[in-house]
Structure formats: structure tokens, C-alpha cells
Design goal:
The chain has about 475 residues and is an alpha/beta fold. The protein is globular and about 65 Å long. The relative contact order is 0.11.
């Protein structure tokens, strides 16, 4: 048992888990990671963030070559799609990065166990391999970073052939003639963008009366207009009640949320993108007495500690947005706390990005949240149409909006829709992290001509003194 005794055992090797393990090892803690899949990296790296971004980038380049390059005097003749090559690029990207994590484990002296990890007696983790054999690990502290699983709907069975989860949507062998997407959140709209660019007809069905639930309302409304311009069709305030798969496709049964006449929709394939649920199955939580909340998430305190001594949890399996970078920050903080340091995560400064074209990025509070909380604020915005670099790029859709406290001018929220929004939001995240004011951002020199000048102009507009509008 001595060789299998560790200061820290991490269950799960996704962004939260592997980062927590590396940070723990950096702090001198003997560390092990338990992962049930052969490949490291979890959902994000293998069937989530990374492969979807590879396809988003490739499909964007294909669409750009076919429609936009001629505006810049670049003529492309004989454009064609090699879907197999596109998928091969995606798979190579994933493979290279999973090997990279294995290299980081070796570099930092982290021991990896392949199998399903479960809590046992106090200070113990059991690893069950695929062949049924078990290995007992001693753990001074255990970090549960088991991530999340795809959520489904009653009456709809995902078969990954015609009725798909995001995993199946990343591995289609051909472009469907008509793809129906259930759910207008991050995942649904990103996958709809990929296959829409490659030639599929897209219909997005959403239970709510808007897309991107939780994001700033003005941002979401503008985004929907731009997606409609890309020929996406939307059926909002609509409930899907069933799906029947056959040789020629899938027939969806739907009805208005408010009540009314039922209808059907036929599609070649259906993507179910209605969110994700915490993955807690087989972890031994009930036997160990680990408390869960009403949503099935593991309850933790401000130090990521559960109610069971020595057991911690991070990432999708606890409350908060199910985002890889949120899990990473929590992994670092948990490792540092276990090592006796003080650490925390500022949840007011966690960005969210939709990697479509244009991109959508947000951090902090929305106008609706500020209004509900009764917080007096000032808003400034600036359109990319008035930005020189955006015009040179033919990327003038969208805007930057900054919300600042009316009394202190402290930045409370930043919302961007436009080219490069996912990169531009980093400046706003830093501003919120440091407690900066809109005036601070407005007086920061930005290089010209860059898209980032739109952020500065929006900050100036908070005080109604933008220069270029």
C-alpha cells in the first residue's frame, strides 16, 4: 500500500482535474490521477471544447473562402469540401493535446491510474479497471473532478446515429441535409454553425422565448438577427415532446410552451443540446456520505471542501457555470488550499464565450441582472461598424457594451458580439478582477488600428464621450 499512498488523489482528468493535479505536484504533494478513459483530458479535450473549436475554425474558413474572400479581391475557383480531412485535423488536434497532458504528468511526477475511481473508507480511493480488478489508493486528500454528462429529454433516446448528443455531432460522416437542433445555448448554436456553414439546413428549437439563456438580452437579440442572416431558422417557445427515428430521418413532435396546436418537424438528424448534468455515478458518494444539492451537484464550502473530511470537489460537478476555465481556476485554488495556502476564485470575473461567427463573449452582470438587483448603472456601447480595423476586415457586425456602477464607475459587466470577441473579453475580465472603472479603461492606450479600440470607445461612451460615434 505504501507505493499507492498519495497526498492528493484526483478523480477525473478534465481541465479541472489535470490542472489541479499539476498544481498540487508543483507544490510538492505526491499526486495521482484516476481516469476511466484511456485518453486524458476529459470531455472538454476529447469530445467537447477542443474538437468543436477545430471544426468551428475549419468550417469558418470554408465559408469565408466561399463567400467573403471575393470582397477582398481573392477569387477562389473550384472550392470543395473534404469532410474526412476536416475530421482528421480535428482528431489530430485532440490526439496531440491528450499526449501533451500525459507529458505534463510525467514532467511533474504525477501517477496515472486507468479505471473508475470511487471513494472508499476514510482516506481511501478504489480504482476499478475495465477488467474488474481493483487497486486501493491511500489519499491524504481527494479532489472529485468528474465533470458532467449530456442531458436528454423525456421521450427522446440518443442513439448517436440520427439522434445525436454533441459527441455524435462532432463525428458525422456526412453533412446532413437538414439538422434540427434542440436547445439554443452555447453547444447547440456552435454545432448548428459548423454544419450550417458546411451546407446543412438548420432549424433551432428552444423552450424559452429567446436564445442564449442567461446572457445579456440585447446581445442575444442582436445575435439571433445575425444567425438568421446566416439562414438559421428558429422555433422559440417550443417544446419537443418526442422523436421518432426511421430510415429517412427523424420526425420531431412539438407543441407551443404556452399551449396550442401540436406540429411535427422532419429532419435528417437531430442534435439534443439541452445542457449537461453533473457526473456523479459510481463515485461512491452516497456510501461516503457526501452531500448533494437539489440539482444533484456536490455541495462544497468556500474552500471546495465537502461535508466529508479530506474530500473536495471542483468543476462541473459543483455549482456554477459548466466551463472549462472555471474548473481550471477551481482546480488551482483547491490544490493550493490543500497545500495550506490561501486561494480563491472570483466568480464575478469568469468569462463566457460562444465560438460562432461572430463570436459572443461576456463577463460580469447583465443589464437584466442589474435591474433586478436595483443597482444604478451607466451603460456605454460602441459598434464595430465604426471601428477601422473591423471595416478593413469586413467584420463590422456587432458591438461592445460596458456596464458601470453609477456612483463608483466600477465596471460591473462587459458584453461583446463581434469578430474576436473571445479574445477581446480578456481585457474586460482583467478590469473586473482588478476592480477597474470605466474611466480606467477609457484612459488606457489601445493600439490603432485594432478591434480592441472598440472596447476603449465603449468605456468612453459610459461617460457619453466616445470619439468615433
Amino acid at each position: 500500500m505504501s507505493e499507492n499512498k498519495f497526498d492528493v488523489v484526483v478523480i477525473g482528468s478534465g481541465p479541472g482535474g489535470y490542472v489541479a493535479a499539476i498544481r498540487a505536484a508543483q507544490l510538492g504533494l505526491k499526486t495521482a490521477v484516476v481516469e476511466k478513459h484511456a485518453a486524458l483530458g476529459g470531455t472538454c479535450l476529447n469530445v467537447g471544447c477542443i474538437p468543436s473549436k477545430a471544426l468551428l475554425q475549419a468550417s469558418e474558413e470554408y465559408a469565408h473562402a466561399g463567400k467573403a474572400l471575393k470582397r477582398h479581391g481573392v477569387m477562389v475557383d473550384g472550392l470543395s469540401l473534404d469532410l474526412a480531412a476536416m475530421m482528421a485535423h480535428k482528431d489530430k488536434t485532440v490526439g496531440d493535446l491528450t499526449k501533451g497532458i500525459a507529458h505534463l504528468f510525467k514532467k511533474n511526477g504525477i501517477t496515472r491510474f486507468e479505471g473508475l475511481g470511487a471513494l472508499g473508507a476514510a482516506g481511501e480511493v478504489t480504482v476499478r479497471a475495465a477488467d474488474g480488478s481493483e487497486t486501493l489508493l491511500g489519499a491524504g486528500a481527494t479532489i472529485i473532478a468528474s465533470g458532467s454528462a449530456t442531458a436528454s429529454l423525456p421521450g427522446i433516446e440518443i442513439d448517436e446515429k440520427r439522434i445525436l448528443s454533441s459527441t455524435g455531432a462532432l463525428a458525422l460522416g456526412e453533412v446532413p441535409g437538414h439538422l434540427a437542433v434542440i436547445g439554443a445555448g452555447y453547444i447547440g448554436l456552435e454545432m448548428a454553425s459548423v454544419w450550417g456553414r458546411l451546407g446543412a439546413k438548420i432549424t433551432v428549437i428552444e423552450f424559452l422565448d429567446r436564445i442564449l439563456p442567461g446572457m445579456d438580452g440585447e446581445l442575444a437579440a442582436q445575435f439571433q438577427k445575425l444567425l438568421r442572416r446566416q439562414k438559421m431558422k428558429f422555433k422559440l417557445s417550443t417544446k419537443v415532446t418526442g422523436a421518432k427515428s426511421g430510415k429517412n430521418g427523424v420526425t420531431l413532435a412539438m407543441e407551443p410552451v404556452a399551449g396550442g396546436e401540436a406540429e411535427t418537424l422532419k429532419a435528417d438528424a437531430v442534435l439534443v443540446a439541452v445542457g449537461r448534468i453533473p457526473y456523479t455515478e459510481g463515485l461512491g458518494l452516497e456510501q461516503a456520505g457526501v452531500a448533494l444539492d437539489k440539482g444533484g451537484r456536490i455541495e462544497v464550502d468556500e474552500n471546495f471542501a465537502t461535508n466529508v473530511a479530506g474530500v473536495y470537489a471542483i468543476g462541473d460537478v459543483i455549482k456554477g457555470p459548466m466551463l472549462a476555465h472555471k474548473a481550471e481556476d477551481e482546480g488551482v485554488a483547491a490544490a493550493e488550499i490543500i497545500a495550506g495556502q490561501k486561494s480563491h476564485v472570483n466568480y464575478s470575473a469568469i468569462p463566457g464565450v460562444v465560438y460562432t461567427q461572430p463570436e459572443v463573449a461576456t463577463v460580469g452582470q447583465t443589464e437584466e441582472q442589474l435591474q433586478d438587483a436595483g443597482i444604478d448603472y451607466n451603460a456605454g456601447s460602441f459598434p464595430f461598424m465604426a471601428n477601422g480595423r473591423a471595416r478593413a476586415m469586413s467584420a463590422t457586425d456587432g458591438f461592445v457594451k460596458i456596464l458601470a456602477d453609477a456612483a463608483s464607475d466600477r465596471i460591473l459587466g462587459v458584453h461583446i458580439i463581434g469578430a474576436g470577441a473571445g479574445t477581446l473579453i480578456a481585457e474586460a475580465v482583467l478590469a473586473i478582477e482588478l476592480g477597474a472603472s470605466a474611466e480606467d479603461l477609457a484612459r488606457t492606450c489601445h493600439a490603432h488600428p485594432t478591434l480592441s479600440e472598440a472596447v476603449k470607445e465603449a468605456a468612453l461612451d459610459v461617460d457619453e464621450r466616445a470619439i468615433h460615434i
